[in-house]
Design a protein that fits this description.
- By secondary structure, the chain is an alpha/beta fold.
- It folds into two domains: 234 residues, 3-Layer(aba) Sandwich (Rossmann fold); 161 residues, Rossmann fold, CATH 3.40.50.
- The chain has 15 helices and 13 strands.
- It has a seven-stranded parallel β-sheet with strand order 3-2-1-4-5-6-7, with helices on both faces.
Amino acid sequence: MTGGVVTSQLGARMHYAVPRILSEAGLLERFYTDICAVQGFPRLLSFVPRRWQPTPIRRLAGRIPAVPGDKLRSFPLLGAYQVARRMRATGPADETRLALLDGEAFSRAVLRDGFGGASGVYGIAGECLEQLQAAKARGLWTAVEQIIAPRDIVDRLVAGEAAKFPAWAGSVAGDPYAGVFARREREEWAVADIIVCPSEFVRDMVAAAGGPVGKCVLVPYGIETGRFAAPPRRRENRLRVLTVGAVGLRKGSPYVVEAARQMVGEAEFRMVGAIAAGLPAALTQSPNLRLFGAVPRAEIAAHFAWADVFLLPSACEGSATVSYEALAAGLPVIATPNTGSVVEDNVSGHIVPLGSTAAITAALRGLAGDHPRLDAMSAAATARAAEYDLAAYGRRLLAALMPLLSRVGSAGG
């Protein structure tokens, strides 16, 4: 190997775990991102008292990549422009259109700066095509992380949910840019040497989409488990159920609401996450359900500490990071197979069929009425999370990349 790895991502997904892992292994050549709190004008946020910071600013202030400053390249003006445009998005089709524009603009910015002395490039699906193509042309190895099921599979699954819950559907159908995004993913697969999949579900969906499953490598995620450790809980008569994620069809929100309505007097529910624009308030009303909207990541731990159980009945994910965090907080996780969770069925939680409110309420009632079982599952959840800490994630990721890292090739510029 003659050089390190260039990795890039829009946003702060996984708390910048991949560049951090590569940096700590001495393998990071450069890390590219759009906007973070430690470069450019966002550094001024540190001088603004927290009490004066609105939620979007607090979220930006938490974007702190744990990599050396000389390895970090950010594009704050590009990031601010992208955020402003997305705030004006008029629906899912417009969001897809902007995602395509953002991925292309980000890749152009990366290519203008270059790959330095790297021997390989690691990017995120949907936003790195031009980077991978340029890297391959220079003789570098390439890897793409498929962070969720392929776009056409996502749309198919969400359309199925929209057919069941038309009042939740909004403008789900008729996205003229979805096919363009799906083609972009396929072009990334074609040029990549490997496709990193965070769960068996994602790998299976790449295969279902006709993708090159032989290129897929399975690398479940990992988190800093200590950040989410919760104090011992006092069990109450009513089970406390937490869901974290955008409120909408893909996250299975209709099933959470229906479970809440069926368990009035038995359980209290919280939903933490952005609420889809235009979603009628009546759809999410139940006397035992409280919606908190989007909150900064730093404030999620308080919600974990409140809860007894974590519920995420998603129609489609990659491997939901929040489920790892819930396990670390000692919460049994109730999830579908499509969530890509690492929960062990009937040990650290329950895997329930997609689309079954009956299975969800049965699992919740089984825990509500049996505190010793709930305590045992909580302990199992904490133990399971320990197998998926950041160090373990690093070992898995580096093992997956080792055949590429071992290659001897010329450095790109």
